[in-house]
Amino acid sequence: MSYLPKGLPAPVPENDGLDQPYWEGTRRGELLVQRCNKCGTFQWGPEWICHKCLGFDLGWHKVSGRGRIYSWERPWHPVHPALKDHGPYVVVLVELPDAGNVRMLGNLLGDPRQEVKIGAEVEAVFEPHDDAKPPFTLVQWKLAFPR
Questions:
Q1: What is the DSSP string of 121-147?
Q2: Are 120 and 142 in contact (CB under 8 A)?
Q3: Distances (CA, A) of 50 to 24, 97, 125
Q4: What are the residues whose beta carbons fall under 8 Å from the beta carbon of 1, sequence distance 6 or more?
Q5: For residue range 27-57, what is the model confidence (pLDDT) as tens digits?
Q6: Which helix (H) or strand (E) holds 25?
Q7: Distance (Å, rounded) from C-alpha 96 to C-alpha 103?
């Protein structure tokens, strides 16, 4: 099941291959975060250089896919023509405790008018789009303990 309306541009890996491991992980149902092999610091979004030690030896680390809401907003106006009849929706900034508290942005699934609390626990949901060219899997978020 897709939560996205048709007509939105498909996310694809960057041409330089920097985020390719992330997208390959999502296809397997795994959430990967970039981590420096020299100093162990996690970072998001992907970069060619470590933000902390400036090293170039970066790898990818599988994380649990569990986090907590750091911030959120509820857009009421469509930011793309394909979203014309799909508002409101909830966008969350999720902090990942098992990845150095890096933060990822995504949609919160469920009732778009639900009450959202800072600090609420969420978990990643992998939404495959196997018919897309190229196929991709989008990471969405859902409350870990819905009321």
A1: EEEEEEEEETTSSS-EEEEEEEESS--
A2: no
A3: 21, 19, 28
A4: 127
A5: 999 999 999 999 999 999 999 999 999 999 9
A6: helix 20-27
A7: 6
